[in-house]
Amino acid sequence: MYHRRGFTIIELIIVATFASLLFILFFIQKSNVDAINRDADRKTAINAMYYALEESFYKDHGYYPEQISEDNITVIDPALWTDPLGFNLGDSLSSYHYDPANCSDGKCKEYILRADLEKESAFVKTNRTH
């Protein structure tokens, strides 16, 4: 009696197709998880900037600055000024934005902090009403 060993071409094609689909699904999910993690990092940075402005800068000076950076907001980790893609707050490609308002002589009464997110709407923090 004749015994065949190995797999047929159809079996190999089915296995290869199934493996390809699993591979594609894995990388789609990995991409989504990575984007969600970057968004979480952005929210953390904006929250740190917000609390530094409110609890440190405003309490010490009684106003908000026209620009923020690690030079005038020294109470947060300097790494938080750089977004997950490597752009610093103030760079045109940065996902972080600081928009002061109602300013006079470098002293502002209001601001908007915003992070552009990948998987959600922008994350926005505004000044507290003092």
Report on this model:
The chain is of the alpha+beta class. The protein has one domain (about 10-125). About 40% of the residues lie in helices and about 20% in strands. It has one helix at about 10-60; strands at about 65, 95-105, 105-115, 125. A hairpin with a 2-residue loop joins strand 2 and strand 3. The radius of gyration is 25 Å and the shape is rod-shaped. The relative contact order is 0.15.
The helix/strand class is alpha+beta
Strand content: 15-25%
Helix content: 40-55%
Unreliable segments (pLDDT under 50, ≥5 consecutive)? none
Provide the domain count. Answer: 1
Instruction: Kindly report the average pLDDT value.
Output: 93
Total strands: the figure is: 4
| Biggest sheet architecture | 4 strands, antiparallel
Total count of helical runs of at least 4 residues = 1
Radius of gyration, in angstroms, nearest whole number: 25 Å
Q: Order of SSEs, N→C? A: HEEEE
What is the terminal-to-terminal distance? Answer: 92 Å
How would the global form be characterised? rod-shaped
